[in-house]
């Protein structure tokens, strides 16, 4: 079997998404006959039928459905490789670090200060992203390393280093029935409404109120519309009309650094090493 070309994958994906050769050709900016020939050539290369064609239109075969999914991943990987290559060739290299606001466990200022003293250090750029968008820049090649939280993140294709294990608190309005408690257990939250982060499976009940940003979350809690589970480090970031109450039996969260598995950068390695050392000095207990 001959090697499949990225151009063929782009052509096929356009047809698979449009399910119409004419619309796909317009989208690609080419004539329809060469598009049809390219798809037939791809089918010959692979030795399978990808599309069912009849007078009613175009439909994907089972093989075509598989290739449509794989093509997205392959083309995204090629685009990410190109972005990383261009960034690596810059005269002044940079390290792009992704975090959500207040999502670094309070470590980032000390990490940046210590990292600046490393021989392999380069200029650091901070990219702020919401909960659901923190890992995406690692996969598309626009960032090098991110502060993420386990167990809620999809870590497929990423290497990771745990930094801190944090307990969790209930974030409640100042006039909430539990606001005056020194601590609670999960059973005390029975009947409460919990939000979920948009685009993050498992971050809350399927029918929970959907939030996209921390400001939305805090406003819902302040209005008494929801109660949120947050890491202990969030205590220093909350509004005055909110209260964090420790939950004794809640599943802990792990703050970790993540980066693409293929990364081989001395600057990145120095950043990960520095962050690990800073976290170890701050942590009251060892990271598992």
Task: Summarize the structure in words.
This protein has 288 residues and is of the alpha/beta class. It folds into 3 domains: 6-87, Orthogonal Bundle (Arc Repressor Mutant, subunit A), CATH 1.10.10; 90-165 and 254-282, Periplasmic binding protein-like II (D-Maltodextrin-Binding Protein, domain 2); 168-247, 3-Layer(aba) Sandwich (D-Maltodextrin-Binding Protein, domain 2), CATH 3.40.190. The protein is built from 8 helices and 12 strands. A 5-stranded mixed β-sheet has the order 4-3-5-12-6. Strands 10-7-11 form a 3-stranded antiparallel β-sheet. Strands 1-2 form a two-stranded antiparallel ribbon. The radius of gyration is 24 Å and the shape is flat.
Q: What number of structural domains do the residues give?
A: 3
* DSSP strand tally: 12
What is the level 1 CATH name of the largest domain? Alpha Beta
SS-derived structural category: alpha/beta
Give the overall silhouette.
Answer: flat
Outline the biggest β-sheet. Answer: 5 strands, mixed
Domain HTH lysR-type: 4-61
Keywords: DNA-binding, Transcription, Transcription regulation
Protein name: LysR family transcriptional regulator
Pfam family, one: LysR_substrate
